[in-house]
Structure to design on (88 residues):
């Protein structure tokens, strides 16, 4: 299992468009990907699950990835957050 902590950089928090893009990225991988905010856990492949977190600007999120392609999956999520929410 790989884990990392990332900070929400979007002015409006992890809003609908940013969450949808995150879901689109995570669905490319076979690994299980979870986003944790305190005691709340969201499946990164579910936009509803991510939106329920209501992560605002500056919120620290713990990303947990486990599976055959976990290394690539966590790199993709880290790259997405590092790019400020832009991806190909």
């Amino acid at each position: 299992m790989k884990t990392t902590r990332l900070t929400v950089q979007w002015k409006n928090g992890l809003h609908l468009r940013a969450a949808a893009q995150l879901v689109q990225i995570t669905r490319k991988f076979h690994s299980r990907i979870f986003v944790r905010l305190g005691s709340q856990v969201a499946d990164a492949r579910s936009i509803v699950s991510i939106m329920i977190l209501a992560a605002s600007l500056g919120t620290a999120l713990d990303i947990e990835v486990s599976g055959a392609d976990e290394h690539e999956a966590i790199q993709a999520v880290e790259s997405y957050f590092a790019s400020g929410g832009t991806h190909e």
Observations:
- Residues 70-82 form the longest helix (13 residues).
- The beta strands are 2-7, 32-37, 40-43, 60-66.
- The first strand starts at residue 2 and ends at 7.
- The chain has a mean pLDDT of 94.
